[in-house]
Request: fold
Amino acid sequence: MAIALQIKGLRKVYDNGFEALKGIDLEVKEGDFFALLGPNGAGKSTTIGIVSSLVKKTAGDVHVFGHSIQTDLAAAKRQIGVVPQEFNFSNFESVWDIVVNQAGYYGLSRAIAGERAEKYLKKLGLWDKRDVASRMLSGGMKRRLMIARALIHEPRLLILDEPTAGVDIELRRSMWEFLTEINRSGTTIILTTHYLEEAESLCRHIAIIDGGNIVENTSMKALLKQLQKEVFILDTRDTISPDLAIEGFDTRYLDEHMFELVLNKGSSLNDVFSALAQQNMVITSMRNKANRLEELFVSLLAAK
Amino acid sequence: MTLAEQWVAFYTIVRKEIRRFLRIWMQTLLPPAITMSLYFVIFGALIGSRIGQMGGFSYMEFVVPGLIMMSVITNAYSNVVSSFFGAKFQRFVEEILVSPMSNNTVLWGFVIGGVARGLLVGLIVTMLSLFFTSLNIQHVGVTIAIVLMTSIMFSLAGFINAVFANNFDDVSIVPVFVLTPLTYLGGVFYSIDLLPDFWAGVSRLNPMLYIVNAFRYGVLGVSDVNVTTAFLMVGGFTLAAYAYCMYLLSSGTRLRQ
Ligand SMILES: Nc1ncnc2c1ncn2[C@@H]1O[C@H](COP(=O)(O)OP(=O)(O)O)[C@@H](O)[C@H]1O
Ligand SMILES: [Mg+2]
Reply:
């Protein structure tokens, strides 16, 4: 399998002296559906900016399907379609013109551009809006317009920067389906997100970036295995004391009717309840503590 | 990209640029038509009749070439500066920056867009002038060459301005505070023979003087300056502006972070 994207020792220091990327390595194989996950300010958009040439790298190498962005930029650009985080099309142009002109920038004849524009605008549910000025579209439509525009030259690598931020649930699902279909037909996809759920339901490989460093780079399966523990918050009917202890489990006292309990991978909730029953403790309710991504970050960063 | 693909990309930009200024014709084509008609009425017809001859021609005949040239200059410049700055401001310049087209394709796409508007407005103003005077073009080659070179030069200058502009004020500063005054003082309305020696000398430092006079030479056959010098100067400025634009694009100055 060819390597769609290879990043080596990539650093970025912005003009104001801020080091947004501290020498990252990344490899995405052809055909993969890859997630770049990280909190706000981690360096996701900077990475994508460098790959798509909108941001100048300070050091390191980037190859797109073997073409260096340093020595063979035009060939590298040809392989990439980018859907940026922020809207970047003319407010006054029609949907049709935006997509067809983009094809022109890649040297595609107007005949081919027209066929493809029809195909992708239909697939993305924008066909009825083709003559509408882009500023009249809803947020979700604008996002889909950018996807159609990114696909118009049929790139081998599609990169989406937080494509579902601010998109409602229903639309998010249909966008996921669309991306899955594109990926099945052979397009390598990289998306950035700060929702683990999104990465989990779509992607096969994942890298986690934080503070300009890659802190994890693995398959989704392997990563989920690392989610070894889950923390629950339990409410009790009776008063508990700060020196509360339950055999076989880590606990933390919160207040006299509430405590935290850590469930390790491999143990079952039944074990928890039988231990609690032995102490005659009555649990009135129970919930998951944090979202799993947060938990993951905490455990990954603690491990470093 | 192959040459044919570069051509498609170039054509895409030019087409988009032309459609842009045609769509907003109330802001791009109408104002110069109105302003220049007023100039023709006031300076040519009303005041001109009292001034008498200038450089051996009726005052109307004398001012028309300069006014045409002034329209070409400001419109070529304004087109590129507002269009490219708009693309930067709304960030859709990124559509172009991520594409594989060459820097030359990008630059010439915008420049030819500016040239198209400069020439179209020049043509409109010329037609309007025909209501007031007749034009007998003396040197067609010189006339066409100087209009083309000038519109290319000022389109390139507009591009440089757009790259550095941070807001819409920066877009209008140069046309209002530099181009218009220099053109007014560049012999549009008078022959510098009328000026005292000192001010005639100062005027010779104004590049617009050469452009206006080269064009006047093309149309009327008279000039206050050496026409070859004028061509060399416009050519030199054009080459320098082109080289600088290419440098800005390849270094990504103000365009790539
Ligand atoms: N143009 C810039 N100048 C200076 N700092 C920047 C610039 N762009 C981004 N940054 C900083 O770089 C870091 C990474 O930003 P970004 O790549 O946008 O993060 P993410 O996309 O992961 O949220 C942030 O701290 C951000 O403030
Ligand atoms: Mg971002």
